[in-house]
Amino acid sequence: MEIPKYYEMHKPVLLALQDGQMHSIKELKENVRAYFGLSDADVSTLLPSGRQSVFLNRLGWARTYLKKAGLIISPTKGQFQITKAGKDALMQNPTVIDTEFLKQFPLFCDFINQSNVSHAKKEETVTEQTPDDEFEDAFRKINNSLADDLLSEVMRLSPTAFEKMVLDLLSSMGYGTFENASFTTAATGDEGIDGIVMEDKLGFDKIFVQVKHWNGDHLVGRPDIQAFVGAIAGKGGKGLFVTTSSFTSHAVEYARNQHIVLIDGIKLANLMIEHNFGVTVKRVFQIKALDTDVFEEYLES
What we know:
By secondary structure, this protein is α/β, with parallel strands linked by helices.
């Protein structure tokens, strides 16, 4: 199911703390997860950057906004407790404690005014997205645009050049990159096998590669996968099929049953981005978080 927005987590966080006792982050996580009936897959879904789960990120921002509104406090590291204002908020029994609801608390208004100052102008506007959500959304849009540009460049290559590019990409991913690099060899015309790379550094496992440099409207069908399976049968290796277009549903189902890995144009472009192949780093943003351990040391001294 869809991960709840950060503001949708406000009420279940307060409900988890309504007994007035201190509760850990782990307890909050389990209570909020149970409140929404989230599965293991739901809470494990990562942000586009892959640095944190969507669930934990939004839960973190929910705690932040509740603290800024004065509805919860964190008396000790990793422990949270409801305040009188938090209990009063629950007494109102709101359906959802969104940002409009939180604006009744002066501390929250001060917080959003300070956060939205632009050219000395204050605006009391809070979107439904957390700052991390907005950053990740922009990150996703930039990568989607970059993926389109990459595919456009790839389509300018000849089929032979594309074969070489795929093998070079696999090499940059760690396949066939060991002392005897000759294992990464083009084999065009060898019964439909366009390349061979080795899966491990000792060269025990072969991966047979077939590539199709096709336009987006020319889909790879089941017969193409069947022919490839026939070409590698009995050779003692695994199969990888790469195309600049995409695969039919029948091709995907057949490949899954035959343990053939498929890479379509979109996945190919994303792999190029992930492994810095054919791209360059334009700018680096460092997202920093509070390190409470530093302050705990000062408190103990």
